[in-house]
Amino acid sequence: MREVYFIKQNKEKWLGIEQVIQGKIKKNPDDLSSLYINLINDLSFAQTYYPKSNTTVYLNHLSSQIFQKIYKTKRVEENRLFYFFRTEVPLLIYQYRRYLMYAFLFFILFTSIGVLSGAYDKDFAKIILGEDYVNETIENIKKGNAVGIYQSGSTWGSTIGIIFNNIGVGAKLYIYGITGGVGTLFALLSNSVMLGSFQYFFYDYGALKDSARGIWLHGVFEIFAMVVEAMCGLILGASILFPRTFSRFNSFKTGFKDSFKIFLSTIPFTICAGIIEGYVTRHALKMPLVVNLAIIFSSLAIIGFYYFVYPSVVYKRINNQTNHAVL
């Protein structure tokens, strides 16, 4: 079947599904499940005969939307907050997973720029981090205490300040997406270049190992959350730039609602990062190396699993449940 005829044959049905997604037409859970199965059949056909077509991309997006609509109409038996983190957010992350990949690719690129800039310009770290901060850190390195900067101030005072600062940084990465994603990328560039030059600075002074033992105790949660927040900004920007068949306003409403939920999921990790930085990082060089590594890699395993692995697990579980319920 030619693609034009395939579109003409199913166009009205797809437009009707869009209206269901937008809430203009109400459907009960059984009707929604039937729509989902019907749409999946169309998607499978398109993937087989028009794999690189915009029609396939459109149907994939539409099926993701109707899939979530099914579970929003179901009664949530469990605690609402538990459901939010256990099911709702992972499904959204799975739906927008390519934006997470984009955010990480930009993060790696921008961090590399920071490393290369630090390597070719020895004063670059002072420009980015501030001369007083760099000079104080150099003195700490000479004293054999590369993470001495984290030992100033009270534990609880530092923790509160760090948490609010990091939430503010994350909020900017997200909200700046309103500029079509340009503001988000600029904010990510600034923070990533700072990280890259910061790490190279320690390498240049022969203190990379000691700095990593301290910085990455809290940095795993903090930096990973920052990238996810950039992902949210990109989703918001894409909803404005690429509304597909939706009106730009309806596309923005959906993009904002979905990205904001993902953004909220980063807050617990940001708070944990602040607590670790305020209470644990200051003791980094006093604890055994195995303890440092255990905290760093367990943190990476937890947040990496939640954003990279668990969404696929939830999607497959829910998808199987839906198919069984329809059958």
From TrEMBL:
A Pfam family of the record is SpoIIM
Q: Which domain of life is it from?
A: Bacteria
Cross-referenced InterPro entries: SpoIIM-like
Keywords assigned: Membrane, Transmembrane, Transmembrane helix
Which regions span the lipid bilayer?
99-120, 173-203, 215-242, 262-280, 289-309
- Which PANTHER family does this UniProt record tie to the protein? SLR1478 PROTEIN
Protein name from the UniProt record: Uncharacterized membrane protein SpoIIM, required for sporulation
Q: Which organism is it from?
A: Chryseobacterium oranimense
